[in-house]
Amino acid sequence: MKNVLPIAATMLACVASPATATAQKAETGKPPTKEEIEKRRQDLIDRIEKLGWKREGAGRLGSKADVGVPKGWRFTGPSGTQTLLKMYDNVPSRSELGMLTTEGLGPWVIFEFDDVGFVKDDEKDSLNASELLKTLREGQDAANEERRKMGIPELELVGWAVPPRYNEQTHNLEWATRVRRKGGTGESINYNTRLLGRKGVMEVGLVCEPDELDKLLPEYQAIMSGFKYLKNESYAEYRQGDKVAQYGLAALVAGGAAVAASKMGIFAKLGVLLAKLGKGAIAIVVAIAAAGKKLVARLFGKRPEA
What we know:
306 residues, 36% helix, three-stranded antiparallel beta sheet, Protein Transport Mog1p, Chain A, alpha+beta, single chain
């Protein structure tokens, strides 16, 4: 969803905000009345409440980690998360482990885990924001062709809200993109964090309106500080012989597993990938294919097994 999360080259598939959902209805040609908008809003809140929420303590993210539930926020697990994404006309990736959101129709913080193995951080000093943005835009152009075929609105990557940056102490990679529907004016912010672990990466996405970002960032960072991998799952617990990912930090921004698939030449197994990830995988794979060998050459060096 995803998402959750940059466009075309990530596992997030255009999470719609409440404002965007209302705009979609308005585009049918008959603007809704204030009464219709309020009724729709309340109906949605009532449906969301039925998903089941935890409002204190910690939320368990599969067998990988816990995340604290801050005051004023609430947590739901995989089933509730995927149901909520569907309610907003999104295609869940099926790897969602949970979601934090505020009461009502607030912002979303979505957690997914990608078991790609231990991601080396040797690219921490060489992340090129301009080159990565160019790659994401190239991928989005290709992905939009498939979005048209699937009847999904095209997206436009406006630019960085926060360029990619890596925290060597916490092993967190983060960046934020400004996204809008093609031809539209309203923007959403997809703020992404990748929490490196021993056996893979916890993918975290904050989806909010641009004018919410400054206010939400302190709360979001507090949520990240309340995240903790379970025993034997943290980055520091890596042991010789553990599985090592076939890509590094740059590829996490530009596409992760889908980029690795391109490098390893496994598009013949595309049917298996789509069966696992569903409809949302199409845009990812098409985006990577469009970038081709040039993209792979930019993102990958040889990554030896540890």
